[in-house]
Amino acid sequence: MAQSDTVTRILDTAEVLFAERGFAETSLRTITSKAKVNLAAVNYHFGSKKALIQAVFARYLDPFTQRFHTALDELEAHHAGKVIPLDELLETMAATVLAVPAERNSLQVFMRLLGLAYSQAQGHLRRYIQRDYGDVFTRFTELVRQATPELPDAERFWRLHFMLGTVIFTLSGLEALRDIAEQDYHEQVSVKDLVRRLRPVVVAAMNAPLPDQMQNEGLHKDFHAHSETQ
Amino acid sequence: MAQSDTVTRILDTAEVLFAERGFAETSLRTITSKAKVNLAAVNYHFGSKKALIQAVFARYLDPFTQRFHTALDELEAHHAGKVIPLDELLETMAATVLAVPAERNSLQVFMRLLGLAYSQAQGHLRRYIQRDYGDVFTRFTELVRQATPELPDAERFWRLHFMLGTVIFTLSGLEALRDIAEQDYHEQVSVKDLVRRLRPVVVAAMNAPLPDQMQNEGLHKDFHAHSETQ
Amino acid sequence: MAQSDTVTRILDTAEVLFAERGFAETSLRTITSKAKVNLAAVNYHFGSKKALIQAVFARYLDPFTQRFHTALDELEAHHAGKVIPLDELLETMAATVLAVPAERNSLQVFMRLLGLAYSQAQGHLRRYIQRDYGDVFTRFTELVRQATPELPDAERFWRLHFMLGTVIFTLSGLEALRDIAEQDYHEQVSVKDLVRRLRPVVVAAMNAPLPDQMQNEGLHKDFHAHSETQ
Amino acid sequence: MAQSDTVTRILDTAEVLFAERGFAETSLRTITSKAKVNLAAVNYHFGSKKALIQAVFARYLDPFTQRFHTALDELEAHHAGKVIPLDELLETMAATVLAVPAERNSLQVFMRLLGLAYSQAQGHLRRYIQRDYGDVFTRFTELVRQATPELPDAERFWRLHFMLGTVIFTLSGLEALRDIAEQDYHEQVSVKDLVRRLRPVVVAAMNAPLPDQMQNEGLHKDFHAHSETQ
DNA sequence: GATGAATGAGCTTTCATTCAT
DNA sequence: CATGAATGAAAGCTCATTCAT
């Protein structure tokens, strides 16, 4: 068996299993036996389980960042120094996200990885992503800034993360939600359907009116009546 | 040591550790040694690790569902059979969510737990929550339906989950995001600030225009140009 | 709940479970939960699991030894100093064995317990039985000795145990064997049937000719041809 | 350390310990520490404790069935279609049983396993033996049938099991009985001695006169006087 | 007299990793 | 280059027993 074969099969199998069960719940034994490679092959080729996780991630993020940079280059060239409209930015990102995954399930893997990267407080994954792939996000954020000049910086930061949450949560939990939706509405949803549904929502969210200034807490009593300071 | 003491200490410790690391990554040994109780105490009081996880959820969800039912009762009484506006529904929910956690950090813990419950595809947790706590969500969803009569049912379902993703992602990753925001915008964000920011976004998202009908995939080529069927 | 009630229920439950699964495979938890008594009740009433096991035995062996002594008294009185024939001794024993158990199945339970007591080599049970109930067996053995004067002592010892094996094995595995017999021969067997079948076999076995003296191993080659020294 | 070494040492050690204490009373920790192999080695090589037990068994039964088939082949060839006398069948079986074990104690293991296989009502072991090794016993039983044409089928079935009980009980409890015999009769008994003693007993038992027909229960009152219906 | 709570020891099994070949 | 064997650590869980009330 050629090396590339072994490595690829490990990655393919790991990707699917990670998406199905999570990282801790997926053992190397399960991966290697399903991939029909030797148990020691993961450690041999990747060094450790953690490195395998990052390799699974890299196989996604490397082409993504490359394509995304290229797509943003084209977009900037096309608009020739003028501001790029928000919806075009979002559509470009969506198109790139959808363009990358070659196999079934892997978009979900990607989203789940992103979700974990954010939610795990200790976060070796977050640092790893920030370090290796932070540039393209910074570039994208800057373009969004130019497209929404009226938004205060902090507000934009939060709204981008609100939307990141929407997308990651929806796509990483896709399987579960799809089950429920199918059961309740007899509707077969594809990722494309979801992205179509997401577009107007994300645009509307980004363009929502600014919140009231919080001049005095007392004025918002019905909303925050029982909340404690956290 | 009184029973309630041991049980409470296990729950308190487990809650924090689960939220920090996830369920699989948190061993009973870690929980019990940190809680300074005997290792066998978890199995004695809860029966299994799985049952402990559900007990951690129950401690949040039981008072939540109770309060939420009460709050919805009051809201319905106040509106006397007429349709309750969407923003009042959302504010009621937000107020209830904020009212439940009694200790510091626990809103974040709760949200992180909810996020985990959704993202674990095999989902004994999801089934458990659906079974034991589904009623109040069904009731809430029905009220939202009356408040948004123009939305198709499926669309409403997805938008509610989009917003659920926004809220869960933001609040569960609060610590990490707070760090970044503070670093970049020198802004101290509280949960209240976030909720204030969330309100117009959520309302706008729910009221966003309907997506274009997907009559023909070819028509949306700039959006889906490179995507494969998933 | 009266004490006797608790004690009796523990004994009743333990007896059945021990017979079904063996001693080590039956936990106090299983016993107490099935008997619907407190987990600590066994230790409270009996002191330890080992003591419970012995109590289960005592409940059978105490009345057995008492009745057996009485029956042997009567037999000796009836024969007035003369030798008691072997078949009368055996029938007396059989009758006593059958007379003891009061409930359904409990003869089988008793036999299974006896079998366990013998087969467990470390044998605190064997010592316990020997110590507390050895007398009546010694008395019986002596009477058998008088009834079979031609048998060397060692030979008699072994043949008695051979027959003990026959009886214990057959009666303790009664359920399984009954299934097979019923399936193959469409025959409903009762304990009485078995005892009827056992009688001529046991008598013939006890009266079998003495084995050849083992003067030289080479003379018995067809029998021991391939055996090693053990 | 070569694989065969580790596997063999585990089997050798397990065999002895199982025979000494039983299965449930023998922990993998005890086995592996005594065999001086890693605790995980049992699960690595055998998969589970249950599989180890069956492997211990198989190491005995595989050569036994093979040899026994061969020996019966030879016996049939020698008698050229004519009926094989009972004592030759029994001696052939005894010789095969004794020929197999390579190490000390393993005959006892074998017998104890057989005893357990029969006495455990739920019986995963009995099913396993029946499935994998039933053929040779069926063949043997048929030859015994031809050798004892005068015996009713049911009677033969029961007598074979009576004798099976004798053999299993005696040999599986050998250690205990040996202790007693040594103490009482100052006699060193070997397995060979026992087999020599067993031969005439078994033959006599198989050839014992048929029991009285049970025409009327009342006629056997002295035998069953005190017995209840079971 | 009886029990719910608690405990320390030990169980089988699985883990990621390493090693010798 | 690759792998079967092996390993130390740790996992979840069950055990008989004890203790405070």
Fold and architecture overview:
The structure is a homotetramer of 230-residue chains. With 230 residues, chain A is mainly alpha-helical. Chain A has 2 domains: 1-47, Homeodomain-like (Arc Repressor Mutant, subunit A, Orthogonal Bundle); 53-210, Tetracycline Repressor, domain 2 (Orthogonal Bundle). Helix content of chain A is 73%, strand content 0%. Chain A is built from 11 helices and no strands. Chain A has helices at residues 3-21, 28-34, 41-46, 49-79, 86-99, 106-119, 124-147, 153-172, 174-185, 191-206, 221-224. In chain A, helix 1 packs across helix 4 (49-79) and helix 8 runs antiparallel to helix 10 (191-206). Chain A is globular. The model of chain A is unreliable at 215-230 (pLDDT under 50). Chains in contact: A-B, C-D. Chains C and D meet through helix 5, helix 6, helix 8, helix 9 and helix 10 of C and helix 1, helix 5, helix 6, helix 8 and helix 9 of D. The structure holds a DNA duplex (21 and 21 nucleotides).
